[in-house]
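Q: Sequence in, structure out?
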Amino acid sequence: MKKILLSTAALALGFLTACDPGNNTTNKPANALANNATATAPAANLAAVETEIKKLVADTAAALAKNDADALDNIYGDNYMLVNLDGSVQNKAERLASIRSGDTKFDSFVYDEVNVRTNPEGTGAVVIGRALATGKNKGAVVPSNSYIRVTQVWSRTKDGWRQVSGHATTIAGGGTASVGANTSNSAANTSDKKPVNTAANK
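A: Exactly. Output:
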């Protein structure tokens, strides 16, 4: 009889333990489990991520300056969307087609004042920077003496970092720039100096 009582008590204790909300992960929301996993995961090296993103921003400027659609194909994600200066929107295929056809053709392109913010996991980043370009975009002449504020969204995919979104806005009252002299500015330089000779930044 004692054995039966002990066995019954052990089963009851096991059942209560299994049903204890504190020990039961089966019924916990998926985001709660993900948050726990994130909390125990090692922190990403955000400084290294920032350096990597700044290099990719510089690579993007170089590809645009050369109108290299193949290089941009590897930079832009499949779901890439761009909001142009005129407010129009292009997806990746449309952007690359515009460059390949010559409808978008840059003579020079450079970024500076590049600021990178990453998420804690190091899997996503937002870039806010400044651009100076000469040439034409979608058939319209790019204002060569005006700065453009740009926002880029980057995502780490199974194939590496990809730019998934871009937005360009002319900086009103942001001063004018001289294109044609030498510059030491690049995407990795976040100082307030204005780029001068963007052709050297191809």
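The chain has two domains: 2-40, 46-201.
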